[in-house]
Protein 1
Amino acid sequence: MTENPYRLAANAATVEPDTANESVEDFFVTRDVSDGGLHFEPHRHDTDELMWAREGRLDVRFGGRNLSLHHGHMAWIPAQVTHEATLLGDGELMCLFADTRLRPPGDRFREPHVVAASSLMGTLVHHLRDLERPRAERRKTRELLTELIATSDVREDTLAVPRDSRAAIIADELLANPADQRTLVELAESVQISPRTLARIFIAETGLSLGKWRSKARLNHSLTLLKQGHSVEGVAAGIGYRTTSSFIETFRNDFGLTRAAYRRRFLV
């Protein structure tokens, strides 16, 4: 199901839709719900865009970077920046499109990047979908969201996905099944390259060794399971940890927060 005018046009024609009548305001929010994945081919807008996967995993490509984002991320895409996005599996994608005159102040908002998605920011994005709200209320809601975006932290914990086709296959398989226990040798054999080559590609294209990349992929997936209400024991087993205590320790060390603190701050 989609409320995204760009995707509706892609399904019907090759031209972009006229979004001028989406709202008499200078901003609007779209929503896409996927039960098997959605893909948006490379494109750009005259408006700034804020992309947020309320549910599921979002792969975003811009500026030669391919990033895998989770619920705690929002991707800031300035106007006229070409980007591509994929919502993997079952999920929900919400996008705020806004006139560039409403852009938060600061040079960093001239470039695409990823910001921290707090619970309040997610609530405000969802709130702005309601076109029945009074215009003054919607304007104040948008202004508050802009202030929060302006002061939000840049998220550096995004997971880069390798561009090399062989390594990308491995990355997709590990993201789809975080509990996969195959060794470096076994993974390399599955795509018919040497373990040394696979290890080199991951470091060169993601900045992480395969082991550290896999650990981060598991932790990112744990956020989805925690949001869905799974027990910590179930989450640990579901992402491949042999003991619950090792998962708890790794989570705290990587995110700098306990699970309870992370849930309060980010998991709306």
Protein 2
Amino acid sequence: MNSQPFQLAACAEMLWRDKPMQWRVKRLTELGFQVGLWNWPEHDLAMLEKSGATFSIMNGYLTGRLSDDAGADELLRSARETAQVGKRLGVARLNLHGTGLGEGGLPVVPCQVVTGALWLKARDTLARIADMADEEGVSFTLENLNLPVDHPGVPFGRAEDTRALVSSVNHPRLRLNLDLYHAQIGEGNLIELCRSCLPWIGEVQVADVPGRMEPGTGEINYAAIARALFAMGYRGPVGMEAFASGDPEAALQAFKTAFTL
């Protein structure tokens, strides 16, 4: 068997960092990859719209938080604004986090203890987001993040937490962005994690550990994960959100090889 059952994408911000974004988007498209983006105000939207690229995912908000009244209202406003940009570019999924992230990926409002009241408010906020997504005809994902290395103080960071929230809302326009790099650092047991999250996965994101570089540079056996995902029946998007250890095209080939069966 030598087939590509998944929709492969790569984060444009993390590759060819010395090249302009227009060049990166064009090259990813030429190589057959969908394009992942971060925050839309950093980009020339007219250029992206004309690029011919297929955009897999983009941050779905600029400001706001899940678990307090003011933050939730701001998140909904920001997410609705971003939904308009997502529709303009044809972005498949708009991504959320447990709280707003600031400089260096650190939470704008750190949270060390997540109470039951915060859980209930987060679930209510996500339900509002899902209803808004229905109105706008877009889809959102909630991404897990690791606490030990990259995002200390982020509430609802573990994949166990994001799965609990998304499954409790149980809305077709709210799915999981299951990031296996973050999950390996925070939880491990990745194949069983994929299995338990499967009904709610909107996208799987990958990078190796340690270093957050392409598959094959660290400890994660992504070829085995690809086989397991296929056996589970997953045929959806897999995005490489990783830096290149050397040549970006070699990194993309290593990613593609790991997810070719």
